[in-house]
Design a protein that fits this description.
378 residues; alpha/beta; GMP Synthetase, Chain A, domain 3; 2 domains; 9-stranded mixed β-sheet; 4-stranded mixed β-sheet; 11 helices; globular
């Protein structure tokens, strides 16, 4: 009886295994980038970049678009243009057209977060025009799938601290943390190839303005410890005129263009006067001088001290100007609201309250620069 029961169990197991649906990889389209745009008739247009493995063609990458009143509907519509089943589990890039970003991206992110198939490590981006235009780029110009190209570009920029890392997880962490706003990379087409144009500043989930790529280092310094990031600083030439190795051909130049590598940079912020909305941010930066547009005698210790002083003044001015720009946009990627919230008796701060206060805050910036080496091999 035991042998008979074992045989029956084995037979049932074989039947169960045969019930499992099998799929060939040639029948599946793997989405690795997706874009959303608003249409004039109120519908959404979804553009997807997919890998599709087929023995009938050398091209494994395809771009498809579909329309619908919801994201799901638009994605479903794209399947009408394919002969294979789409799977979204490998989406690495989610791009929003400018019009959608200006109205607010949260409803579409919430849809992503509720989908168990979606990874919360996908990068979020904004198109300067439409997401479809960027994702429909001729891939021969990049020698790879456009979704993979954008993913590697953003990953490289975030690894080098050139832009803050912004995955779906990172976005939600800041979005739900009252007192700080998100920033995202903006892409444009340049000579037919996508490139990062600027940094988008968001108020909540709405795109309200942009800042130059170079300014993102200031936001990075406020929110994390920075290492091995290249920093360019333009200084007045006049303070260094007596220390120029040769003054030939430099008498008409008014700027000293310098480049550094930040070895270590970080900031500390505190509330000095809560009632008067006064803050203080102390930033310390150790860096190596890599390049200068005019040959200044930097081996002179006095010149190094002078250089440090001029860089401190320039970065202090940059912080002040950026804060002024952000206050006009009423968006706080610096995160001063977090420090203000901590000083509240109940530790709470509403978004509406901080939107009212942020344009009025005053910050004393103290920048301490230490040039520890000069030259790549020094």
């Amino acid at each position: 009886m035991k042998l008979k029961g074992l045989i029956i169990l084995l037979l049932l197991s074989c039947l169960l295994i045969s019930c499992v649906e099998s799929e060939q990889i040639e029948q599946i389209g793997i989405i690795n980038a997706r874009g959303l745009d608003a249409l004039a008739d109120g519908q959404l247009e979804a553009t997807i970049v997919i890998y599709q493995f087929s023995s009938e063609t050398d091209s494994i990458s395809k771009t498809r678009s579909g329309k619908g009143h919801t994201v799901k509907g638009a994605i479903e519509d794209t399947e009408h243009t394919t002969s294979f089943r789409l799977t979204p589990g490998k989406i690495k890039i989610e791009m929003f057209g400018k019009e959608i970003a200006e109205k607010g991206i949260f409803p579409y992110l919430d849809t992503l977060a509720r989908d168990a198939q979606m990874s919360d490590l996908m990068y979020l981006t904004i198109s300067d025009t439409s997401a479809k235009e960027i994702l429909s780029t001729d891939e021969e110009l990049m020698s790879k799938n456009v979704g993979q190209f954008l993913y590697e570009l953003i990953k490289n920029e975030t690894t080098g601290h050139n832009i803050p890392r912004k995955t779906l997880h990172d976005f939600f962490r800041i979005y739900y943390d009252t007192g700080q706003d998100n920033i995202l990379p903006i892409f444009e087409l340049y000579e037919g190839v996508p490139r990062q144009k600027a940094i988008a500043v968001l108020q909540g989930d709405k795109f309200v303005g942009e800042i130059e790529n170079e300014k993102s280092v200031l936001i990075n310094l406020m929110n994390s410890t920075i290492t091995r990031q290249i920093l360019e600083v333009n200084l007045p030439l006049e303070p260094f005129e007596d220390y120029i190795e040769t003054k030939e051909k430099h008498h008409l130049q008014k700027k000293l263009y310098t480049a550094y590598r930040i070895e270590n940079g970080k900031s500390k912020t505190k509330v000095v006067d809560k009632e008067n909305l006064l803050f203080q941010t102390d930033t310390k930066i150790k860096m190596r001088l890599l390049e200068e547009s005019v040959p200044v005698r930097i081996k002179d210790k006095h010149v190094i001290k002078l250089l440090e002083k001029e860089v401190e003044e320039k970065l202090t001015s940059d912080f002040e100007k950026l804060l002024n720009t952000l206050q006009k946009l009423n968006a706080d990627p610096f995160g001063y609201g977090r420090y203000y919230r901590i000083k509240q008796e109940d530790g709470k701060l509403s978004e509406a309250e901080w939107r009212e206060k942020f344009p009025e805050i005053k910050v004393k910036f103290n920048v301490d620069v230490n040039i520890i080496r000069h030259g790549i091999l020094d």
